[in-house]
Amino acid sequence: MDVSLFDFVLPQERIALRPAEPRDAARMLVMEGGGELRDASVRDLPDLLRAGDCLVFNDTRVIPAQLEGTRGEARIGATLHKRIDLRRWQAFVRNAKRLRAGDRIDFGAGVTAIAEERDDEGGFTLCFEGDEPVELLLERAGRMPLPPYIAGKRAADERDKADYQTMFAQKDGAVAAPTAALHFTPGLVAALEQAGIGTEQVTLHVGAGTFLPVKAEDTADHKMHAEWGTLSAEVAERLNAVRARGGRVIAVGTTSLRVLESAADDAGLLHGWTGETRIFITPGYRFRAIDGLMTNFHLPRSTLFMLVSALMGLERMQATYAHAIAQYYRFYSYGDASLLIP
């Protein structure tokens, strides 16, 4: 498909630079079936879903994956985006022309890494030196990797260490937050449970490429980034039982959705699954494992806007986003939410 079909004009002032306070006070735009759009709040979620439904969250934890260092007199910036093994990460590198294979980068706080090899996109594989776990090194020297549309307007600060982490975050490895789940609070989860709505968790370590616009002119020419995820056999069995009883599986965020769709067979049954996924969902895709999606508002020409267009229809999503812009919804990672149920 022509990528320009997924373009739209977003005023810069609609980009949220901080989350709503409290988190569940964010607005939520509801599109269900062929009905009209409804303006609601995240706090309304227990009333918008049905007893027997189940929300699926991503329990990945964002690591402080953005580093600033030096190689001699040259300043080098690195954003880790894919783990290779215990000590090695692939990284996007700023000022990469000043870096050669074998160079040592000093990131301060006693943290150093060797640039091993350049990749096809101009980044490098970095091997962190020493015996300490890389996670501890990043806690000392790294910063939260805010998306460029926020980082370009303000620097990351202490608030982001909490703001850019969901209440479900348990497993280190993401370099971008599963942002739909940022809206949830313990009080909201308790209200959902009281309403008979279940919750389950999967893992997808979100990569830095998730939110980038597609540069190809046709979707067929886009190379999707790989992300590592897992779905336990026990969770798969419980989710299959939800649908067998007539309940709906609602993915919280496109990251949870990508795990579920990667783990489903052609009949829509989920199975235990672990591995890398490059699933690229565009209009025409047949959804197998989910009955709805709660997600934030996405970038123009992005794979995520293509995904929601596949779920609800491109024309309807363009109309939905036009409504959101006109009604001053807040966009992107720290912005408001939408509830999309085909």
TrEMBL record:
Keyword RNA-binding: no
Pfam family, one: Queuosine_synth
Key word Transferase present: yes
Enzyme class: transferase
GO BP: tRNA queuosine(34) biosynthetic process
The entry's keywords: Cytoplasm, Glycosyltransferase, Isomerase, Queuosine biosynthesis, S-adenosyl-L-methionine, Transferase
EC number assigned by the record: 2.4.99.17
Subcellular location as annotated: Cytoplasm
GO CC annotation: cytoplasm
Family: Belongs to the QueA family.
Protein role: Transfers and isomerizes the ribose moiety from AdoMet to the 7-aminomethyl group of 7-deazaguanine (preQ1-tRNA) to give epoxyqueuosine (oQ-tRNA).
Subunit structure: Monomer.
HAMAP family, per database record: QueA
Name of this protein: S-adenosylmethionine:tRNA ribosyltransferase-isomerase
